[in-house]
Each structure stands twice: as structure tokens, then as C-alpha cells.
């Protein structure tokens, strides 16, 4: 019999119950018992849901109070020294996750420990807590592993439960050397033998507790692996296979891409089953089928765990039948491509959404239905699920034919894009002269990255508009007042290039999505970003159309208030793409180009209205990089083209800025160069100067504003501190190319600290001008 299961389920809950419970605990409103009981109920609800939908096996251990990688660290006793004096259990756990500050009491000294580092989980927007390893890191299985207790709970409910573990090799690869351990001498795979002892002990205990299959996630198998990493796999899995008196069966799961050249490695491993991602990489099925050992099971990742569209079930069945023909039904599992953690809980609550579009969507709960239908079709024949299959085909057809997805004018424009639209009219040198003549900026020109503090009043104003307590006009009056205050503030501080402050924007992507056709918004489509923090990505369902200017009114109003140059602020096409759920019926490139054309029009309108400087933010360009290096160039080629398409429709005298943050720029340097922005402002105040040496090495010739004020912290940097920072920077960059600015937008900060910090920032620039 073909069985169905998901690799993991969204942990946050239909109504973000996890958020309420955990944040309630942090604020002291919820006690430990309530918290633990609450998450216990939530777990059970999610398992029951999967079983009720007809799935044969439920994952156990995928849920977490904060993060499953942190859970793995705690499971094996990988707790950095600075948390070891805290109470083990929840106190240490949440301190690792988010830091802990507590004033001294009579009996205890003050505690002030920062959080551990957080990083993006592969190419998702989920962030995990980075494990920290000592040179001789010890591993010690927790006395009461949470996964054992959860296995017992699931089994007590009569469910077929499959514990989920992060595999040892991926776990080691995700970590970093602890503070004080030199990266050069650190060999993570030297830790493998000790780590395996702990894994074996855990697998033994899971077997004793009744587990028959364990899911071991090794997503690193879809990456380019070093020789050391490849060598670690056979060592690790030979040892794990012997656990549980060899009775336990291991399902090794890979996801987020093709196993590619790691397939040979995979087939050497003594495991009982393999899971591959057939949503991202359906083409790997044949090779995997051929490589599989005689008794090995294959879990088919058919239902996409990374997007929100209904699957094409006919297509999925074709792939599944191929597997069944080769392996027989008993060795085939139908599954989600990855954990469903990366999609929202259910479309059931989306009552406000356009019904036609809602019919195209499948969130996690609906994806469970799809899995059940696939298994039934394979086991009992398609007639057993005829209605569901017909309905699925009808939806696919309706979507493909809908006038909502296709806009002839957008299509026509896409066809007429010319190579000349990817280039400015002249080279930077000549643009620079023309822009200088127009703007007459001093050396070390000062500016900000765009947003100013989003105070409570600003958020309340937006809420009033949303609830209908305010008319659009009342809201506009409020926003104008905010703009005026922001302009006057910048004049008073003495900045050179001003911004309007972005007070009318909830979020830098959502704001533009709301003004464009082709976007739809969910009410409850929350997806975990980190810990209890969720994001609600907008959904791009159709061709992009800009019905009218999106930022013109506010920007022109802001410019009318001052004789200083006003900078128009736009979000770039790649960032819009990257931070949305994207349609799957055309290449990402095409969607990016459509967005780029809409932004190009906005840029033209701003220029025509006399705005001399326009910034197009691309903070997400780096995170769009594919997981495999071989795919980087193709991505960067169209990503940079999209930026160019959005930004080059202006005359030489109009100055184009871009902004990037959270980036390791070294990887994408030639791409940054090709973007050819007149000015690039970057996040740099936290990262070291290595970043800047890249600009020097690659002889970057356009203007650069390396952030000298870290806006992620409430600290106000002193004049001295920023001066030092800037003089260090000037060792790498020519004086006449440097701008002076914060490292990102100021929207999360308060006015007093922004005033103090920007006053210092301007003082630094002025002092430099006098000196130079
Ligand atoms: C994450 S980058 C943010 C850029 C945006 N213009 C802002 O200042 O908020
Ligand atoms: Zn930024």
C-alpha cells in the first residue's frame, strides 16, 4: 500500500496560538504549566488533523517552542558556556533564543546575556538558531528528551508516529565555532564521532519507545558539499543504521532541491528509505529510482511545501505511478516536498479574499487533502477519488485561462523589452558630472536609507483607516503632517539628501503590492519567520499592472516643502519577488521583469515630476541566490537585469540609489557592479571591514554609502565612534566616492535616539569635509 505523510506541519497554529502562548509566557501572563499544556494541545490538534485528513503517519518532534535547530542543540547538550549558569529548561532555552536581561536582586547577581546568532534556513525566510561548537564539544543526550515524550503522546492517541530528527551531518554544517575558537583550526567533522554516540543512544531509546521509522532530515544533501562533508555521510549513517538493534528504519530526507551529484553518496548509505523533493526537482526521479537499493523505500516530495498553489495532481500522479511501477506500492510514500512549516495553516479563514483566487490556493491543511487524494488514487484507482481529481483539473484549467492572471498589455510590454532598457544612457563618470552640476552636494554627502520612526501614532492612524474610523482624506492629512515633520527634522539636523520618511507604508513590499494589480493579500496567511515571529507574504497571482502612480503624491509633496533634493523611495523588483509567494505558472524571471516594468514607470513619473534622486531598494537580492553555485550566474543575470530594467529609464542627471542589507557582498560583487546604481548604501556597521575591501578589490567606481550607524540597536553611536568607523572605511574607498548614512531604515527606532544619532552623523561628515 502507498502511504501518505507530511515531513512536518506549521507549528504556529491556525490562529497563531503558539505565538500567544509563548509571548504570554515571556511577559509573565502565562505560567509554565499553561504554556506546556497549551503547546501539548496544539501538537495533538495538528496530529489529529493530519490523521483525520487520511495521512498514515504523523511527524513527531517537528513542532518547537522556538526553533527545531535550537531544540537539536538542547537535545544533545550543545549549550554555550554563557548560558550554562542559567536554570536548565525554559530559562536557558529562551535565553539562547532571545537573550536574557534581569536586574540584580538581593540573592542573585544581574543577568545580561545576548541571544545566539540567527540565520536563514537554506533559501527560506525561516531563521534558525546557529549552534555553537567548542573545539572539543561534548555531546550529552538530554535526560528527558522532548521527542521521546512526544512520541509517547502520539502513540497513546493510537497514531502511527514518525519522529523527526535533524541529521548529524546537516546539524554540524549549520553550526559555527564558539567564541574564542579559531575558525582556522576548527574542524567540525572532528566532532562527528562524539555526536554519533549521542544520536545512537537517542535512536535506541526511540526504538525502545516503539518507533519503527525515524525521519532524519539531511537537507545539506542538496548543497555543494566539501569532501569532508561527503566523507562524513557514510561514517555517520553506518553507525546510525546499527542503532535500535538494527530494527529501526531510517528515512533520510532531502529537500529544497535536487540531490544532484550527491546521489552516489546517498545510495551508499545503509538507510531504509530516501525522500526527494520532486516539486523543486522533478527531473531527479529517474536517477533516484535507478539508484535505489532493492529494499529501499522512496518518499516522493510531490506536494510543494514552499508555495501556496494547489498542486497539479495529474502531474503528481504521473510521477508517482512511475515510482510505483518500479518499486511496487509498498515501498512508495507520497509526501510534501519539504516540511509544511513554510506555508500558512489553512485557507479556511480567507473569507475576504476574492473567491476566484482563493480557489487556486492550498495552504498546509489543504495540502494534506492533496496527499490523501494521491495515496487513494494510487491504492484504489483514480475512480475512488474521481471528484477530487476532476475538481483539481477544473481549478488548474480555470486558473490557466483566467483573465485575472493574464493581462495582454503587460504581456505585450514584456515582449518589447529591448537590450537598451538594461543600460543607463552614459557611463557613471559622465552621469556623475551631470548630477553634481544639478545637485551641488558637498563631499561626504549625508542621507538616510528611507524610513523614519514608525511611532504608535503612525500605526494607530493606519489602523483607523483600516477600520473605517478615518476616511482616506483624514488619513492623507495625517500622513502629510508626518511628512512635513520629517522634512523639517532633516533640514534641522542638516542632512543633504532628504526623504519623505515612508510613514504611509506598513511594509516595504506590502505597500507596493497593495497598489499593484496581480497581487492578493491573505488575512491569516502567517508563516514562521523566527521564533514566534511570523510574516504574511503577499501573493503574486497574475500579471503585474500599475494602475496609477504609487508614491508620487507623497514624494512630490515632500519636495514641495524644501529646496534640498528629495529622494523618491521604491522597493526593487527582486525584493518584491523574494518576499512574496510567487506564481508558479511562469518563470520567476518573467514575474521579476513585470515588477520591474511597473517600477520603471514609477521612476519615470517621479523624474517627470522633478524628483532628482530615486532609490530602489534591493535588500533581498543576495538571499535569492540559488543553493547550488552552478545556478548562481543564471539567477544573477536576470536579477540584475530586472533591477536595471526598473532603474535605467531616466536621464543622466537623475541620480539612482540602491540599498542592500544583510548581505555577504563578496558572493555577488560583479552583480552589484553591473547594477550600476549611482549610489549604493549598504549595511556594514556590524560586519567587519572585509566587506569594504571587496569594493576596493573589485575597483568599484560609483558612489558608496557604507552605513556608519547601526540602526538595529537602540544605542546612539558617538561622534568619535562614527569618525573612527569612517576613517577605517576611507582606507578602502576613495574619499570622493563616499556618502555618509545609517545602515538601514529608521522605522524601528524612536525619534530621540534618531535625532541624537543623526546629529552626530552629520557632525562627522562636516568634520571630514573641513579636514579634506
Ligand atoms: C530592509 S531595507 C529597508 C529600506 C527601506 N527604504 C527603509 O528605510 O525602511
Ligand atoms: Zn536595509
From TrEMBL:
Zn(2+) binds at residues 659, 661, 683, 744. Binds 2 Zn(2+) ions per subunit. Its EC number is 2.1.1.14. L-methionine binds at residues 502, 617. The active site is at residue 712. 5-methyltetrahydropteroyltri-L-glutamate binds at residues 19, 125, 533-534, 579. One of its GO terms (biological process) is methionine biosynthetic process. Keywords: Amino-acid biosynthesis, Metal-binding, Methionine biosynthesis, Methyltransferase, Transferase, Zinc. Belongs to the vitamin-B12 independent methionine synthase family. This is 5-methyltetrahydropteroyltriglutamate--homocysteine S-methyltransferase. It comes from Thamnocephalis sphaerospora.
Amino acid at each position: 500500500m502507498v502511504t501518505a505523510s507530511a515531513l512536518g506541519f506549521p507549528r504556529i497554529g491556525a490562529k497563531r496560538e503558539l505565538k500567544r502562548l509563548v509571548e504570554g509566557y515571556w511577559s509573565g501572563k502565562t505560567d509554565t504549566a499553561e504554556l506546556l499544556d497549551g503547546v501539548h494541545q496544539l501538537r495533538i490538534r495538528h496530529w489529529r488533523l493530519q490523521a483525520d485528513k487520511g495521512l498514515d503517519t504523523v511527524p513527531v518532534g517537528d513542532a518547537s517552542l522556538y526553533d527545531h535547530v535550537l531544540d537539536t542543540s538542547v537535545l544533545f547538550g550543545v549549550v554555550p558556556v554563557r548560558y550554562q549558569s542559567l536554570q536548565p529548561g525554559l530559562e536557558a532555552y529562551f535565553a539562547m533564543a532571545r537573550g536574557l536581561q534581569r536586574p540584580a536582586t538581593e540573592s542573585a547577581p544581574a543577568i545580561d546575556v545576548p541571544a545566539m546568532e540567527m540565520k536563514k534556513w537554506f533559501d527560506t525566510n525561516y531563521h534558525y538558531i546557529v549552534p555553537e561548537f567548542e573545539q572539543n564539544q561534548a555531546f550529552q543526550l538530554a535526560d528527558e528528551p522532548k521527542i521521546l515524550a512526544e512520541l509517547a503522546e502520539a502513540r497513546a492517541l493510537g497514531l502511527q508516529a514518525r519522529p523527526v530528527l535533524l541529521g548529524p551531518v546537516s546539524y554540524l554544517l549549520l553550526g559555527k565555532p564558539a567564541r574564542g575558537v579559531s575558525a582556522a583550526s576548527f574542524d567540525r567533522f572532528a566532532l562527528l564521532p562524539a555526536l554519533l554516540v549521542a544520536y545512537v543512544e537517542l535512536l535506541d531509546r526511540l526504538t525502545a519507545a516503539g518507533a519503527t521509522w525515524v525521519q532524519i532530515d539531511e537537507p545539506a544533501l542538496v548543497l555543494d558539499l566539501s569532501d569532508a562533508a561527503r566523507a562524513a555521510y557514510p561514517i555517520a549513517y553506518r553507525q546510525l543504521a546499527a542503532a535500535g538493534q538494527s530494527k529501526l528504519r531510517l528515512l533520510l530526507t532531502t529537500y529544497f532541491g535536487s540531490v544532484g551529484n550527491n546521489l552516489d553518496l546517498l545510495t551508499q548509505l545503509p538507510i531504509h528509505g530516501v525522500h526527494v523533493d520532486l516539486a523543486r526537482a522533478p527531473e531527479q526521479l529517474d536517477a533516484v529510482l535507478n539508484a535505489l537499493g532493492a529494499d529501499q523505500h522512496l518518499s516522493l516530495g510531490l506536494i510543494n511545501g514552499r508555495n501556496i498553489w494547489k498542486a497539479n495532481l495529474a502531474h503528481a500522479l504521473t510521477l508517482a505511478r512511475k515510482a510505483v511501477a518500479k518499486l511496487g506500492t509498498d515501498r512508495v510514500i507520497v509526501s510534501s516536498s519539504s516540511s509544511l512549516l513554510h506555508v500558512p495553516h489553512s485557507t479556511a479563514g480567507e473569507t475576504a479574499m476574492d473567491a476566484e483566487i482563493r480557489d487556486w490556493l492550498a495552504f498546509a491543511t489543504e495540502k494534506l487533502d492533496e496527499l490523501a487524494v494521491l495515496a487513494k488514487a494510487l491504492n484504489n484507482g483514480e475512480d475512488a477519488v474521481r471528484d477530487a481529481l476532476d475538481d483539481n483539473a477544473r481549478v488548474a484549467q480555470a486558473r490557466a485561462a483566467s483573465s485575472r492572471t493574464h493581462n495582454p498589455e503587460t504581456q505585450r510590454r514584456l515582449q518589447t523589452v529591448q537590450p537598451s532598457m538594461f543600460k543607463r544612457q552614459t557611463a557613471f563618470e559622465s552621469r556623475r558630472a551631470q548630477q553634481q552640476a544639478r545637485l551641488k552636494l558637498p563631499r561626504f554627502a549625508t542621507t538616510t536609507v528611507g524610513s523614519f520612526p514608525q511611532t504608535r501614532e503612525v500605526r494607530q492612524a493606519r489602523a483607523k483607516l483600516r477600520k473605517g474610523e478615518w476616511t482616506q482624506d483624514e488619513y492623507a492629512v495625517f500622513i502629510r503632517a508626518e511628512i512635513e515633520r520629517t522634512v523639517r527634522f532633516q533640514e534641522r539636523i542638516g542632512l543633504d539628501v532628504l526623504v519623505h520618511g515612508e510613514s504611509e507604508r506598513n511594509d516595504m513590499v506590502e505597500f507596493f503590492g497593495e497598489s499593484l494589480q496581480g497581487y492578493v493579500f491573505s488575512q491569516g496567511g502567517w508563516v514562521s519567520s523566527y521564533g514566534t515571529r511570523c510574516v504574511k507574504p503577499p501573493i503574486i497571482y497574475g500579471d503585474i499592472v500599475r494602475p496609477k502612480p504609487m508614491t508620487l503624491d507623497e514624494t512630490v509633496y515632500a519636495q514641495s516643502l524644501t529646496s534640498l533634493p528629495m529622494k523618491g523611495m521604491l522597493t526593487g523588483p527582486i525584493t518584491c519577488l523574494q518576499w512574496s509567494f510567487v506564481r508558479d505558472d511562469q518563470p520567476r524571471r518573467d514575474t521579476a521583469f513585470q515588477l520591474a516594468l511597473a517600477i520603471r514607470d514609477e521612476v519615470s513619473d517621479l523624474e517627470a515630476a522633478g524628483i532628482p534622486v530615486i532609490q530602489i531598494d534591493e535588500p533581498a537580492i543576495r538571499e535569492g541566490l540559488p543553493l547550488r553555485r552552478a545556478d548562481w550566474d543564471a539567477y544573477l543575470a536576470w536579477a540584475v537585469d530586472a533591477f536595471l530594467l526598473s532603474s535605467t529609464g531616466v536621464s543622466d542627471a537623475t541620480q539612482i540609489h540602491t540599498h542592500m542589507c544583510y548581505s555577504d557582498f563578496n558572493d555577488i560583487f560583479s552583480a552589484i557592479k553591473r547594477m550600476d546604481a549611482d549610489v549604493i548604501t549598504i549595511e556594514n556597521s556590524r560586519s567587519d571591514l572585509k566587506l569594504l575591501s571587496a569594493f576596493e578589490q573589485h575597483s568599484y567606481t560609483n558612489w558608496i554609502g557604507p552605513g556608519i550607524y547601526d540602526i538595529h540597536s537602540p544605542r546612539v553611536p558617538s561622534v568619535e565612534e562614527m569618525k573612527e568607523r569612517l576613517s577605517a572605511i576611507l582606507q578602502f574607498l576613495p574619499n570622493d566616492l563616499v556618502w555618509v548614512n545609517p545602515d538601514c531604515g529608521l522605522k524601528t527606532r524612536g525619534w530621540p535616539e534618531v535625532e541624537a544619532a543623526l546629529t552626530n552623523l552629520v557632525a562627522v561628515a562636516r568634520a571630514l569635509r573641513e579636514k579634506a
